[in-house]
Design goal:
The complex is a heterotrimer of chains A (331), B (548) and C (284). Chain A has 331 residues and is mostly helical. Chain A has 14 helices and no strands. The longest helix of chain A is centred in the middle third of the chain and has 38 residues, at 188-225. The two termini of chain B are 41 Å apart. Classes of the chains: A mainly alpha (331), B alpha+beta (548), C mainly alpha (284). Chains in contact: A-B, A-C, B-C.
């Protein structure tokens, strides 16, 4: 077991290397340079000034040299400095240790995704199970159609409709951001409620869209399990259906879902770009989008490597969880 | 780009205020007529929104409009534009310009303090000047200062600069770009100081807190040299999506924002808006245009360019894209400013004339496919524009449609800014582009039109070359005599109108909206926010209590 | 004989699944609309009309007009074309690449397999949306670029599927028999194994089309959509988002069009999957 985990951790290194190599090449081979953005289209900037900037960022060197320079820093966990005119360390942009935990980008996105994931699982698992046990009934069709409606609704559109209804028309929920203007003057309970209020709409929209994947997966996994021999045996023994399903089948049906969760990390970050933009949430998705649009290579690379690492970690944890839960594959 | 150097650039003109009504009065009328008279009072908070987040709060290092928005509240300059566009003193009390125009001597205000309590002196100006011309400073604004031959501190309150040649835009360049606290920055690498994100300034507001990605909270500087600002706090919220921002305005999460033409004309024309908000409208100091690559074999010919100018209906573009909130541009200056020449050739929409000009140049539809051709080649070209500007995209779409009517096939490519500049503009790989220039009140446009400025990465990227224009540009920047300058720039506009290197499309209006509890807003040709420190919320109307 | 029997079972099972049939009808209608777009649209979809800007639905303009006075109904019909094209080409590219890598990895195994699988792992770990975003932003958002980039970043699922099928099929008798008779690798891959593994690939392609349609609308939202004046549901919806309070018709019609289409593809794909799944047959 320990050997297996060590081996897996060791295997993460070449994968991470590959991720950075591919991302770096795509960024640097694309047309355009970050110095154009910095300079903006201003008649008062001279060509010499732009060249100076390029030198400053090593952009005049061959791409392989640039990659090695970057790699040398990253192995020392030095993410470098942002190309934007504030030239802050990349790590400060992603995980600003001067700010409280709740204001750090990585934490915000992470927390939002964990909450969403939690909400999805709480709804998707029972939904998947019941539609499997009621396969091809009206109930099954209604749940199938509704989770797909969730998947099929463009999230930014749904978000805006809900913001209009609950935020402007009813005035019940805040529209954007993570906390209210008067946050600092609230009591502790008030602060918690304020934060939760701000999360309701984004989490709902996000979860509504993600329900389909997990609940469908749960359904098919359940369908497969209840056809296994040991379930048939359990049924033949005359155990009540409820016991058969929730005692015997559920545990095995849940296993594949663990892997699915591990695999969904990069997709969640992708989805965060749109959600964070429409809800004005200052997370990693927003930072990634801004960095792409301003060619802030060090920040983009920093995000890519952190997300890559988290994904691999997620996969590893999922596999370990799988092994712990399923004695059959404990080598 | 549109708003770089915003605080010095603010310009002029008729402000038309119309909450609901379309009367074009020059004066500002509050929407409800029985306006109560209120006493100015301290307190309350102004919350405004921005799509982008500032990056650097030192003016000379900032490239984006969000940074300048905030830096402009924290730093002041030696001079500034008055509401009538004349230059008045800011940190400088007065100044003298030598007869030959080469030497400017500034007399600074006494007793002005940086917000950390240290007195502001001429050394701070010299320090700022030395920093901006330093090779190691990554600034986009050094060009004007490289014209200076010598800068010296005569005494604590006197600063003198000497120019190599007479330089007409000289005085206006001494805005807030070059005033830096020497005592905090001396001997430090300016790009690495904490000043970038925690600036110490001497302007009406000081930065209290910056929560990245969320908001910047500014507090009034009580010892501001022009008097304590009435509004205690200024909050700058970052809201990336414009639709979300507008919803926030309605839900009370914002007090002020810039409206799109559509929001201005259609979405804010309701009872709720009339009661709770005041809208403003004034022309922005910029113009949008379509530029031709003059090296392109077809566009070399001025008759082709003129034909295209006749085929575009500027009025239509303004009506549709700007909902009428703008005026047609006829040259590189904004109407109603002194360099603007109203009597140049205007290309009224005339598709027949356009077709005739093209036919004279040999372009005819010989194979009946609806597209003009000549020597077996179809008349087809691509208009490039940059991403993130819906007005330009829509303008391009209308031009595409209009040109299709006279048999020219147009493709549109909307590109991300960096690719657009580096791969297409710099390498001259374009046929036509739609862009906007923000312009300063000083009419010097040497960099855009002079034939010496056509190298890669320079701004005469269309390759315009006219010896007479070159000469006039040189003349215009070397004299201080307004009449002489006016003559030169008037002539330039006539030539540009005749030769059509650009099709000048429109000058858009700025259309901000502010919550009606804010009083003391005096719209002027240079916009509304120039007197922000004098805005106030009367005591009974204050919304946000100051924290204990 | 065997195949026709399977076909009968498939159809019987598919037809029993009513929501899958609904999905099939939606997809079929979409095809008809896209195919006959020029006949169905009452106006030229690009005609600008300064006098009819943002007009609500009426007899003249059943879906209203947009911010340039263009007929939204006609633009929606042509948008169906774009959506269909984006979906099909993107998924086509992904499927071809996926089959290529998947079959090589699955058939040859060993080091080839390991290298390809590692590459797939890497691609799965990079947020694909980031790749799409970066590439589209940098090379410019034309419809072809969008299709190609979506295709290039979404083949990994197909590759894994095909590889798994190969692993299970290559030890079967018919493949071993073909090998023993001296058939070439290429012949075995294409003629014997691939044909048999197409069903799950087809299902994943149908679901992939749904994903591509959504992705296009997301890109439009971020300003990285197809170039004007080409109408897509994504760019009409984005326009609708900005005018949501005064022009509901600009977001309701494209919003529901996207919703119905994606739903249609999903129901159809799921229906086919269920009908094809032999494990579910016993339940009958």
């Amino acid at each position: 077991m320990i050997n297996y985990i060590l081996k897996r951790i060791f295997e993460m290194i070449p994968t991470l290397f590959g991720i950075t190599l591919i991302s770096f090449m795509i960024l640097h081979l694309a047309p355009g340079k970050p110095t154009d953005v910095l300079a903006d289209f201003n008649p008062k900037i001279t060509p010499e000034a732009r060249e100076r900037l390029e030198k400053m960022y090593n952009l005049d060197k061959p791409i392989t040299v640039q990659y090695v320079l970057w790699l040398k820093k990253i192995v020392k966990l030095d993410f470098g400095e942002s190309f934007s005119s504030d030239r802050r360390p990349v790590i400060d942009k992603i995980w600003d240790s001067k700010q409280p935990l709740f204001e750090r980008r990585l934490f915000i996105t992470f927390m939002l995704n964990v909450i969403t994931m939690f909400v999805i699982l709480i709804i998707a698992i029972p939904l998947g199970i019941t539609s499997a046990t009621h396969q091809n009934t009206l109930y099954d069709r209604i749940t199938t159609t509704s989770v797909f409606i969730g998947f099929a609704t463009p999230s930014f559109w749904l978000a805006l409709l809900l913001m209009m209804f609950f935020g402007v028309y009813l005035g019940w929920l805040p529209i954007s951001g993570l906390k209210s203007m008067n946050y600092d003057s609230l009591s502790l309970t008030g602060k918690i409620i304020d934060r939760i209020n701000h999360l309701i709409l984004p989490v709902f929209v996000y979860a509504f869209g993600g329900l389909a994947g997990d609940s469908r997966y749960m359904r098919s996994s359940m369908l497969e399990v209840i056809r296994q021999d040991y379930i048939k045996v359990a049924r033949a023994k005359g155990l009540p259906e409820r016991v058969v399903i929730y005692r015997h089948a559920l545990r095995n049906a849940l296993l594949p879902l663990i892997t699915l969760i591990g695999l969904s990390v990069p997709g969640l970050i992708g989805g965060s770009v749109i959600m964070e933009s429409i809800f004005g949430i200052p997370g990693m998705g927003q930072l990634l989008f801004m960095s792409v649009m301003t060619r802030d290579y060090p920040v983009i690379m920093g995000i890519v490597i952190i997300v890559g690492f988290l994904t691999l970690l997620g996969n590893l944890l999922a596999d370990i969880g799988y092994m712990l839960a399923d004695p059959r594959i404990r080598h | 780009m549109m708003f770089a150097r915003k605080y010095l650039l603010y310009i002029f003109i008729i402000l038309i205020l119309l909450p609901g009504c379309k009367e074009k009065t020059g004066s500002y009328v509050q929407s409800n007529s029985k306006e109560q008279v209120y006493e100015p009072a301290y307190g309350d908070t102004l919350i405004t929104g921005s799509i982008g987040e500032p990056s650097v709060l030192i003016p000379m290092l900032a490239g984006d409009s969000a940074s300048h928005d905030i830096a402009g509240l924290i730093f002041n300059g030696l001079v500034k534009y008055d509401t009538d566009l004349s230059i008045i003193g800011d940190l400088a009390e007065s100044w003298e310009i030598s007869k030959d125009g080469l030497v400017i001597t500034f007399h600074l205000r006494k007793g002005v303090k940086w917000s950390d309590g240290v007195e502001f002196t001429a050394n701070d100006v010299l320090f700022g000047f030395n920093t901006i011309i330093d090779d190691k400073t990554p600034t986009a604004y050094k060009e004007d200062f490289l014209q200076v031959n010598k800068a010296e501190v005569l005494d604590k309150y006197t600063f003198r600069v000497t120019y190599k040649k007479p330089f007409a835009p000289a005085l206006s360049s001494w805005g807030n770009l070059v005033v830096l606290p020497e005592h905090l920055l001396k001997g430090k690498d300016i790009t690495k100081t904490t000043m970038i994100r925690e600036p110490i300034g001497l302007g009406p507001y000081k930065l209290k807190k910056w929560i990245p990605g969320q908001e910047l909270i500014l507090e009034s500087y009580r010892d501001y040299f022009e008097g304590r600002p009435y509004i205690d706090r200024y909050i700058y919220r970052i809201i990336p999506d414009p639709a979300t921002m507008f919803l926030e305005l309605q839900a009370g999460g914002l007090d002020m924002m810039g409206l799109t033409p559509l929001q201005y004309t259609k979405q804010t024309d309701t009872e709720i808006f009339r009661e709770n908000f005041q809208k403003f409208r004034y022309p922005v100091f910029s113009y949008t245009h379509m530029a031709f690559n003059l090296k392109h074999p077809w566009f070399k010919d001025k008759h082709i360019r003129q034909a295209i100018a006749y085929a575009i209906d500027k009025k239509e573009i303004i009506d549709v894209v700007l909902f009428g909130l703008g005026s047609p541009a006829t040259g590189p200056y904004v109407p109603n400013t002194w360099p603007y020449n109203p009597n140049v050739k205007k290309y009224e929409y005339n598709p027949e004339k356009a077709k005739q000009l093209l036919a004279e140049a040999g372009w005819k539809d010989t194979n009946g496919d609806g597209i003009l051709d000549k020597d077996g080649k179809k008349f087809e070209f691509t208009i490039l524009t940059n991403m993130g500007n819906n007005l330009r995209k829509n303008t391009a779409t209308i031009i595409q449609w209009r040109l299709a009517k006279i048999g020219i096939k147009v493709n549109i490519r909307v590109l991300e800014w960096s690719t657009f500049v580096n791969e297409f503009i710099d390498k001259r790989r374009f046929e036509a582009v739609i862009l906007g220039w923000s312009i300063s009140p000083d009419p010097d446009q040497y960099d855009i039109w002079h034939s010496s400025k056509t190298r890669e990465k320079e701004f005469n990227f269309i390759g315009y070359n006219n010896p007479e224009v070159d000469e006039l540009l040189e003349k215009g920047r070397r004299t201080f005599n307004i009449e002489e300058r006016k003559k030169a720039y008037f002539r330039i506009q006539e030539i540009l109108a005749e030769e059509v290197p650009y099709i000048f499309l429109y000058v858009p209006d700025a259309t901000p909206i502010v919550h009606s509890r804010f009083k003391g807003i005096k719209p002027s040709p240079i916009g509304i926010s120039y007197n922000l420190p004098k805005w106030y919320v009367p005591k009974p109307l204050q919304k946000h209590a100051m924290e204990p | 004989m065997k195949t026709s029997l399977l076909k009968d079972i498939f159809w019987k099972r598919f037809k029993k699944n009513k929501i899958a049939v609904i999905g099939a009808i939606i997809v079929f209608l979409l095809f008809i609309i896209a195919l006959f777009a020029p006949l169905l649209s009452p106006y030229n979809q690009n005609d600008i009309d300064r006098n009819h800007i943002l007009e609500p639905p009426s007899f003249k303009h059943p879906f209203g007009t947009d911010d340039l006075g263009r007929d939204v109904f006609s633009r929606m019909i042509y948008g169906a074309r774009t959506s269909l094209l984006v979906g099909f080409v993107a998924v086509g590219i992904a499927t071809i690449i996926g089959i290529f890598f998947g079959s090589i990895a699955g058939y040859y195994g060993g080091w080839t397999d390991r290298i390809i699988m590692r590459f797939i792992d890497i691609m799965l770990t990079i947020p694909t949306f980031f790749l799409i975003l970066a590439v589209i932003a940098f090379i410019g958002p034309s419809i072809w670029n969008i299709m190609i980039v979506i295709g290039l970043t979404s083949w990994m699922g197909v590759a894994r599927l095909v590889r798994a099928e190969f692993l299970s099929l290559k030890e079967r008798e018919f493949v071993l028999a073909a090998k023993a008779m001296g058939a070439s690798d290429r012949r075995i891959i294409f003629k014997h194994i691939l044909i048999n593994s197409l069903a799950p690939v087809f299902v994943s392609a149908v679901l992939g089309i749904a994903g591509a349609v959504l992705l296009e609308s997301g890109l439009s939202f971020l300003g990285l959509g197809v170039q004007p004046p080409t109408p897509t549901w994504g760019n009409i919806l984005t326009l609708g988002k900005d005018n949501i309070e005064i022009a509901w018709w600009l977001s309701v019609f494209p919003g529901f069009a996207i919703l119905l289409t994606v739903l249609g593809y999903n129901l159809l794909g799921e229906g086919i999957r269920d009908a094809l799944d032999p494990r579910l047959w016993e339940a009958e």
